[in-house]
Write a structure and sequence with these properties.
The chain has 212 residues and is an all-alpha fold. The chain has one domain: Alpha Horseshoe (Serine Threonine Protein Phosphatase 5, Tetratricopeptide repeat), CATH 1.25.40. It has ten helices and no strands. Helix 1 runs antiparallel to helix 3 and helix 1 packs across helix 10. The longest helix has 21 residues. The mean pLDDT is 96. The structure holds adenosine-5'-diphosphate and magnesium ion. InterPro entries: DhaK_L_YcgS, DhaL_dom, DhaL_dom_sf, Dihydroxyacetone_Kinase.
Length: 212
Amino acid sequence: MNGKTVMACIEAAHATLKEHTEEIAALDQQIGDGDHIFNLLRGADALLGLRADIEAEAFAPALDLAASKLLSTVGGSSGPLFYSLLHGMAKASGESGDVASVQDAARIFAAGVDAVAQRGKAGLGSKTMMDVLIPVASRLAELADSDASPEAVLDTLPGVAEQSMLATRDMLATKGRASFLGERSRGHIDPGARSSQLMIDAVCARLAQDRA
Ligand code: ADP
Ligand code: MG
């Protein structure tokens, strides 16, 4: 994997966010302030503008470049959180930063998710994007332990992400803006869980397509 792979994943994420803009805006209007998808699209647009620079880099510096750009363009809670995800992944990728195995991918993604957890102080069950990121990282770790093929991983994770996203509907929000609603936060899917799930789905599909 290199900067071109990173850029292809960014494009896939951007396309799915565009496609689901209205839906995610509506979710954030229900339990947040409605800006989540627009924050993310601003970031994704900025990353598309950096295409040549990102593509020219190796994997880890490409992720880091994207991370810094997100920090300066995405507002809200999610800007620093996505910065932490990508920067944490870059740090764990080491110098060459190649993702040569499912084990590498599991270690790198887990490091990114840990960085988000440290930044946002949310664990499982707070009704945030963590309720998608943590189960996906856990399943990826299990798949790595059982020596699953990359194809099996890319086929399995979207389902894990989807189930996890749907499970946020019944949760009580205890972190972020939605927590101000208390019990009224129940009955709505968390917008950050939905956007994260969609991006995971799109990135897996894109990586699977590259391997086909
Ligand atoms: P804001 O809530 O500041 O307007 P956004 O609208 O960009 O920020 O993002 C809202 C999303 O961020 C939520 O749907 C939730 O998934 C996620 N989020 C909020 N707080 C946290 C946190 N402490 N840890 C992880 N994710 C969080
Ligand atoms: Mg918001």
